[in-house]
Amino acid sequence: MTMTDLGALLRGVATLLDDAAIPFMVVGSFASMAHGEPRTTMDLDLVIDPTPASLDVLLASLDPDRFYVDVDTARDALHRRSMFNVIDTATGWKLDLVIRKDRPFSIEELARRVHVRIVGADVPAATAEDTVIAKLEWAREGGSDRQLRDVAGILAVSGDRLDHAYLERWITELELQEQWARARGF
Questions:
Q1: Which residues pair with residue 85 across a beta bridge?
Q2: b or e along 120-140 (b: 16 or more beta carbons within 10 Å of the residue's beta carbon)?
Q3: Beta bridge partners of 116
Q4: What's the sign of the alpha-carbon dihedral 112, 16, 38, 84?
Q5: Has residue 40 got a pLDDT over 80?
Q6: What is the 3-state secondary structure (H, E, C) of the chain?
Q7: How far apart (Å, rounded) are the C-alpha atoms in residues 23 and 131?
Q8: Distance of CA 13 to CAs 63, 67, 120, 171, Å?
Q9: How many angstroms separate the CA atoms of 40 and 60, rounded?
Q10: Averaged pLDDT for residues 162-173
């Protein structure tokens, strides 16, 4: 799949989310690349904040000849505030749709989203600071140095433009000091 094809997929999914009135933002590797350094990945992560009704609108709008989604898993993910996958069968790309967590950081993170250009698509994405915090959390949960290298890449590209007071507030509140120190050591 070319970047042009991926951009078309992202624009199409963004349109479906907008049409279903579901607030969303690109997170994960693509948000990291928007604020930092490029790397390879085969999935696209989006945080979404649907209601039961808007989720049903989204699920009904996904063309079953192109997209695979387990409707029951998606509804359960909303109930549990977890995630579900949508697979673009034409390209093999996996979309991880993560239901926004019900906690202060996640609420603020979605409210702060910014529009950026990712693979030729203008879409809302997590800010550089919020991407750093989320990557630090993933590193803590999974022990992955890949997440810490992504943080280091964001610091290398966007470090002087980051809101360090905001970062320190959430790093302290979410107890991410160890991961923060490790990421700055890369």
A1: 96
A2: ebebbbbbbbbbbbbbbbbbb
A3: 123
A4: positive
A5: no
A6: CCHHHHHHHHHHHHHHHHHCCCCEEEEHHHHHHHHCCCCCCCEEEEEECCCHHHHHHHHHHCCCCCEECCHHHHHHHHHHCCEEEEEECCCCCEEEEEECCCCHHHHHHHHCCEEEEECCEEEEECCHHHHHHHHHHHHHHHCCHHHHHHHHHHHHHHHHHCCHHHHHHHHHHCCCHHHHHHHHCC
A7: 17
A8: 11, 11, 14, 32
A9: 31
A10: 98
Check if the beta carbon of residue 131 is closer than 8 Å to that of residue 163. Answer: no
Best CA proximity match to 117, nearest among 13, 18, 11? 11
d(CA 50, CA 120): 25
The β-bridge partners of 115 are 124
Q: Which long-range contacts (CB under 8 A, 24 or more apart) does 2-5 make?
A: 3/119, 3/120, 4/119, 4/120, 5/91
- Given a cut of 70, is residue 4 above it in pLDDT? no
| Residue 7 identity | G
- Percent of the chain having pLDDT more than 90? 83
Q: 67-68 and 43-48 as β-strands: parallel, antiparallel, unpaired?
A: unpaired
How does residue 1 score in pLDDT terms, banded at 50, 70 and 90? low
* pLDDT value of residue 153: 94
Given a cut of 80, is residue 181 above it in pLDDT? yes
CA distance 2 to 174: 38
